[in-house]
Specification:
TIM Barrel; about 300 residues; eight-stranded parallel barrel; alpha/beta
């Protein structure tokens, strides 16, 4: 039953009609729990609260799969404005970007040019940027674009790798040799079993293996999970292998496991929270529900109270 609900939520995440309906009602019905707001000031307000609690931030201006150059240009300007706002406010935040939001499905060169504009401004401010990994159809081209830009911005650019893909072991191995700062996640898109592990236990096992492999490679590793069993395992692995604390951090998502975030900070670990914001929040919200269908109950209660 849970898997069926997850599949339905992932299907709805791609529905344009459902997206339009969601835009009509705004960030009601539970979305505010996972999305900081629609505007940059909303994101900065959330960032200041997290920074005050000792938590670092990565701002994520939501959006994906744009299909016109104008839309891609607007998304690029939003990212540039976000960098300006981070620098002006003096908050502790990085920036996350998606290539389809910046025109990847329109023209690769257009997308790469837009990312370069973002990186040039980020470099001027000293703000780190991470390219998010999207669905499998965009995996290889994302890797290609990342590698080309990483040569020019080696200390300013990182990447996300998803543990549920069979190919990720080879990717992590190669990226480790290239000295890449990686954020490792389990993965939140629906993929066929021809390219991704269909069983959660296999994803969990691969996730831990990839984390351990990248940690011992000597490169920075972002451990992105809310799974306490994984976190406890990685703490022990880090201790047993004498991994310096400045070579990794725990990362979580806004509105999820906030008490766990704070407990890790109190233990002396670096914690970074991804803070999503923007008008195009619907697909992100649906994937968060799909990751943990029990959250649907929270949304339903919010609707009844509204």
């Amino acid at each position: 039953m849970e898997q069926l609900l997850r599949n339905i939520l992932l299907f709805l995440a791609k529905s344009k009609a459902a997206n339009r309906l969601a835009q009509r009602y705004g960030l009601r019905f539970g979305a505010k729990r996972f999305v900081a707001g629609q505007l940059i000031p909303d994101a900065l307000a959330a960032t200041r609260i997290l920074n005050a609690a000792g938590i670092m931030v990565t701002l994520d201006h939501l959006g994906e799969s744009v299909f016109t150059e104008k839309e891609a240009g607007n998304a690029t300007r939003d990212c540039l404005d976000t960098l300006d706002a981070i620098a002006e406010a003096g908050v502790q935040s990085r920036l996350s970007i998606k290539l389809t939001q910046l025109g990847l499905d329109i023209d690769r060169n257009l997308c790469q040019g837009n990312v370069r504009k973002i990186l040039e401004k980020a470099q001027g401010y000293g703000i780190f940027v991470r390219i998010d990994m999207e669905d499998y159809a965009h995996n290889e081209v994302t890797l290609d674009i990342f590698r080309e830009l990483h040569k020019q911005f080696p200390n300013m650019l990182g990447l996300v790798i998803q543990a549920y893909l069979y190919k990720s072991g080879e990717d992590v191995e190669q990226l480790g040799r290239e000295g890449v700062n990686l954020r490792l996640v389990k993965g939140a898109y629906k993929e066929p079993k021809s390219v991704a592990f269909p069983e959660k236990a296999d994803v969990d096992r691969n996730f831990i293996e990839l984390l351990e492999r990248h940690l011992v490679s000597g490169n920075f590793t972002a451990i992105a999970t809310h799974d306490e069993a994984v976190i406890d395992h990685m703490k022990l692995f880090i201790q047993n292998n004498n991994i310096p604390r400045d070579r990794f951090e725990f990362q979580m998502l806004y509105g999820i496991r906030t008490s766990l975030q704070q407990s890790l900070v109190l233990e002396g670990y670096t914690v970074r929270v991804y803070v999503p914001f923007g008008r195009d929040w619907y697909a992100y919200f649906m994937r968060r529900l799909a990751e943990r269908p029990a959250n649907v109950g929270f949304v339903m209660r919010s609707m009844i109270k509204s």
